[in-house]
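Re-run with default settings, no changes from the original entry. Doing this only to confirm the output is reproducible before filing.
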Amino acid sequence: MRKGLLVLLASMALVIVGCSKSDDADEKVTGGFIRIGVLTDLSGLYSDIGGQGSIVAAELAVEDLGGEVAGFPIEVISVDHQNKADIAAQKVREWIDRNGVDMVTDALNSAVALATAKVVAEKKKIMMNTGAASTRLTNEDCTAYTIHHTYDTFSLANGTGTAVVKQGGDTWFFLTSDYAFGHSLETDTAGIVRKSGGEVLGAVRHPLSASDFSSFLLQAQNSKAKIIGLANAGGDTINAIKAANEFGITREQNLAGLLVFITDIHSLGLPVTQGMYVTSGWYWNLNDETRAWSKRFFDRMGKMPTMINAGVYSSIMMYANAVEATETDDADVIMGWLRDNPQSDMFGKNMTLRKDGRLLHDMYLMQVKKPEESQAEWDYYHVRETIPAAEAFQPPDESRCPLVTGTSQ
């Protein structure tokens, strides 16, 4: 009887210890799991550059992590934000409150990302934005919980704008998408053009997902500018380029696609896009590592990944590295660790995180190949220049981020 009692007491003690450890683990990682939310465009004009491809990239990251981080299961959920900031903010709030989402990635569309940044800052969760470009995210709308991962309007302007002016394209007219992203891209590129000795002759703004570009292109044509700067993206860029070629505008003026993705080149074809300069944060054919990962992606999607897709993968790997090292999902701890520890993966090497949330990595100036130069389908770019991380992005002394300047928001 006494022996049985001792065994019972010992078993109870083990249960109590086990529960205590479990409780401690749950305190370190809320709910005992890591959950990532892919906030993307699944049905609109940006679905080809993010969309299902971003979800697949996230799934590849979870597979490469073995389905867990620091002993905790990691999973991905996703939603179509429909390119509407209010829908995105509402969904992210629900994700955090009801689904225990720790980190939001992609955030494709600048209005969506700006709205999401406010929610994650309020909830003390993290957004690792890979899809939105506006530099407002690291300037006046920066937060302590936002990371701007893949590219931004300054880096795009810095690469393409500088290169085009050097090639003699010294007068510009902008065709601009009329929301935060387009405004930022036009402003940043205009600044680079003027700094490089060029002149801006004017601009016209079109609605997001415009159905007809004829009147906008007519204004650009009448400006007589050498360069028509396309401060838009996705379907809008594709449709603007098609219309400019159909109207014969490209016989007298050149187009500068300020945010062009490899899927856009694939859709338009090399005969239409050859010679165009493109600035990108990543390219599938950069090296053996990017090619190997892209083959896995291609096997599932039937197309090569965009830099946004690659950024989603990288953002999850970075977040997982931080959780593994700190054994917590506490956002303040995670952000502190990421600022102190440079990251390397198939997206970039020795990437560092600034106080304003800008992730620093190399950018690349590409030029679209002529049809006869392409060795295979999706072999579309010459890498003309590697822009070092320290030169690619807005200098810190130009920052308008309150976290940097010390001013109140």
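The chain has two domains: 32-151+286-356, 156-280+364-387. The domain at 32-151+286-356 is CATH 3.40.50.2300 (Rossmann fold).
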